[in-house]
Protein: Exodeoxyribonuclease 7 small subunit
Organism: Algisphaera agarilytica
Amino acid sequence: MTKKAPSFEQAIDQLEELIEQIESGEIGLEDALKRYEDGTKLIQRCRSILDSAEKKIGELTADGEAEGDSDAE
């Protein structure tokens, strides 16, 4: 069974939780390193979602500009 990738909001929530755990100093070094690794994966997930959103906005903006240009003629 594959694990479903978190949404942007879920990834941010998980990342904030990991940061709190690491900063608390109440976990050991090995656990802190594991959480750090998990955090970097969450950051990559967030960046991927943001990159996709930016690309989609660019496409929509370009489509809107192209439609607007043809209406002006």
